[in-house]
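Internal QA ticket QA-208
Title: Verify multi-chain structure generation after dependency bump
Assignee: T.L.

Test input:
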Amino acid sequence: MVAETLWRRVWEARWSYVFMAPTLVLAILFTFYPLVASWYISFLDWSGLDSDREFVGFANYVEAVSDPYFWNAFGRTFAFAAVTVPGTIGISLVIALVLNDQALRMRVVFRTVFFLPVVTTTAIVGIVMSLVLNPFDGPVNAALLYLGLIDRPIDFLGDPNLALWSVAGVYVWKWMGISMIYWLVALQTVPSQLYEAAQVDGAGRWRIHRHITVPLVMPFAVVICLIGFVGALQTFPLVQAMTGGGPAFSTELVEVYIFRLAFAAEYQPRLGYASAVAVFFGLAVLVLTLAQAWGVRRAATSQRELRGGRP
Amino acid sequence: MTSIPQTAIAEPVTSLADEAARRPPVRRRRSYRRELVVTVILLPVCLLWIYPFLWMVSASLKTDTEIFGSVSLIPEEIQWENYARAWYEANIGPYFWNTVIVTVASVAIVTLTTAMMGYVLGRQRFPGKRLVIVAFVATLFLPEGYTIIPFFELVNRLGLSGSLWGIILAESGGAHVIMIFLFAGYFRQLPNELEEAARIDGAGFVRTFWQVMLPLAKPAIATAIILSLMRVWNSFLIPLVLTLARPELRTLAVGVYSFQGENMTDWSGMAAASTISLLPIVAIFLALQRYFVEGVAGAVRG
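Actual output:
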């Protein structure tokens, strides 16, 4: 009986399934299948499409855990995120607060300029930036030398101690505009009557932000941080184009490491091992993201209490 | 976690500009001095943001010797042959058309399929709906770079690696959760009378969608097209991996990247190739900048 009514409901909704079919087929092929397959491949010793696969159990994971290249890439990836996420979010907040002023007539121009790098091709921007930052003929060093700020050119991308942070700077420059838009959306949810009331009460700009803006945009802040964090782990195009992971592996983030293991021509491909690294890292990211998402929910709850308290 | 799709669907798409217009100005008394100070401080910051692009265009019009070590942006004599060299000798021409084909095809596929999916999720009831929503939201937490190996193997096994179809389908194949929920939210807030009227007129499911609902979703379609345009035109990892053995299928991002590997010293050629690659997307952005901003803003509204 139950099966029969379910079958009838399915049959009545047949067009819904037909309409979902193209998206579902594409998503299963290119999103869900690769996810499951990468777990399976991570248990194989497999060095290329045409070569034999051998099931090796957890051997790849055991190797990853004791591989210094992996742990270095792992640590660098989180160090990169730890620098770029606060950098991007802080700068974009300041700019959004300034641009949120309706009286500022050039705000659309400023917004467009700050957003411009976001729409451009990351890999190509990376290549242009590697020329701009070039120590011998690039304009940045030429300008710094001309102004007398430095005596010798700075090798932004060739110095192993500096390269990762140069890439981080370009990353902040490239993606700041997107957080700026998020902040502008958040700031516009603050009811303007609150600002007016505060002004009538004689509150200054700083106190208004401290007591009205900050608590009301807090839940957005958590979402913006979450999106920023997930984004900061997807650095492959920029890093590969700017440094390719060098010099001396100093900018080799996890994605670049996986690419080198699996596809770089100068090495024997290690698809099974690369998959193990990817799965391990993906799980680490998942745990961190879920922890943050839990934070989002908590912040949303406290926000509701705050709003509920308002007349 | 499940609260994300629900709010995303429930919230109608509102526009940044509309909100700004509705909202009375915070400060009735305009402070011109403040505006002047802010503008003077922001202008150099802005310059920092566009200088790399200005430098790129300027370098593409100079000779190599003129580029090296120079801060000036004005070329002595405009060198159009840099563009000819990039277009013909560095194969940027074919790469350009590859990118156009991949982008147009993939944007069309993604927009149509996500609109259909969003329509069903936003307006229809069917067994298994909750499962579908949960599965798609879960993919939000999945970084693309970490499944590239099975992805690569799949495209090869499907026999798609020999043509642009492999790249087109691969680019169309993500879960596109944000776009699906954009459409779902949009379709959900349309009045029920529309469907009833269509049914009375004898229109079936497909015709109701195609002739009544889809034409009403133009704002959502515009946003969806722009979001996927930005993603596909700028995509790097997927076309890079899929064209490793087939240089003739490269897209611009991959083509300029390998140009750098092969001609380290040809800065003017590289700048010209980069300018050709960035110009279309920047031009579209400047023409439709409001829609770009709206599209991106939609991601955080849910």
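Spot checks passed. Chain B has one domain: 3-14+90-301.
Status: verified.
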